[in-house]
Write a structure and sequence with these properties.
The chain is built from 10 helices and no strands. It is mostly helical.
Length: 316
């Protein structure tokens, strides 16, 4: 078990070591950042411009329906149109949810591979990074699936305990105080549990493990160091929360372009913070292995997907 002073030094050490990854291979990391910004910007703009007409149409029809006589033909047309727009809107949002999930998995995996290669002194090119990321996606996907189930289970557990208490307490002030208190405590516990979940994702990228096996390996190597990962999660959560508050500026009605620009900047900023978080977790992964005396291996062969060169046969 690490002492408090060792924990502090270890936490500061991770935050100092993480930016060095960028300086060790500027071309690779800059290319990865540009890829992140490009894909996230395309996703955000596609989502905004494809759903905006349906949101305006839904709002207009929802406003007109209460003002229309229920037995009139116009009421029926408005209601049918509203349901059709709603179905299309939900379909679009599900499509975008799948796209952002796949994009997030790909970019997170690429960030971990690039960080591991650079941290280990490997000279990895951008094309090799993309190929090795595609090659490694299966394992992170299974681990992400298990982690998502765990996250959903935790959320349902919190809500299952919170809702009955909210129904029992009738006073608004007491209910709000209870909601805030449980929300803060649930968030703290979630960030503590997420240390193993995030580390398992890193393990599934860097090792031939996934799912339950990766979660077990993460729980094994993080013993005595979980507070370091907890600190990383808190820093990421607080940073993202501050940036997320800027999305409120998207409600500015004086301009049609400014809210979109603000949203684009905020979304990309949050993702860059997440990218830094994955880089830090990669460094944290190596610290955990070294602390427990495990040999730090340069990943492959599996990771980098180098094409082996066939031996040259001697000519007769």
């Amino acid at each position: 078990m690490l002492m408090a002073s060792d924990m502090t030094l270890g936490f500061v050490g991770i935050l100092r070591e993480t930016p060095k990854i960028f300086s060790k291979n500027v071309r690779l990391m800059a290319s990865l950042i540009l890829l992140n910004l490009l894909l996230l910007s395309l996703y955000f703009l596609s989502n905004v411009f494809s759903t905006k007409p349906f949101i305006s149409d839904l709002a207009t029809k929802a406003f007109l329906i209460p003002l229309t006589y229920p037995k009139s033909t116009e009421f029926a047309y408005l209601l049918i149109g509203l349901m059709q727009d709603l179905r299309v809107f939900i379909g679009l949002e599900w499509t975008f949810a799948i796209v952002i999930t796949a994009t997030s998995l790909f970019l997170s995996t690429a960030t971990i591979i690039a960080s591991a290669a650079t941290h280990g002194g490997e000279n990895l090119f951008f094309k090799e990074l993309l190929l090795s990321t595609l090659k490694s996606l299966k394992r992170p996907f299974f681990t992400w699936f298990y982690v998502t189930l765990l996250g959903l289970g935790y959320s349902f557990l919190v809500l299952g305990n919170l809702l009955p208490m909210m129904l029992i307490i009738q006073q608004p002030i007491a209910s709000k105080a209870l909601l805030i208190t449980i929300g803060i405590l649930a968030s703290i516990l979630y960030n503590y549990l997420a240390v193993i979940w995030a580390l398992a994702f890193v393990i599934s990228v860097l090792e031939e493990k996934c799912g339950i096996e990766a979660l077990g390996k993460a729980a094994q190597i993080v013993k005595g160091m979980q507070l370091l990962g907890f600190g990383l999660n808190i820093v990421f959560t607080v940073s993202s929360s501050f940036l997320f508050q800027a999305l409120r500026l998207m409600t500015i009605k004086q301009s049609t372009v400014l809210p979109i620009v603000i949203g684009l900047l905020v979304v990309n900023s949050i993702w860059l913070v997440k990218m830094f978080w994955w880089m830090a977790y990669t460094v944290f992964y190596y610290q955990c292995k070294e602390t427990h005396g495990e040999e730090v291996e340069v990943q492959d062969r599996i990771l980098y997907g180098k094409v082996p060169t066939a031996p040259i046969l001697n000519e007769p």
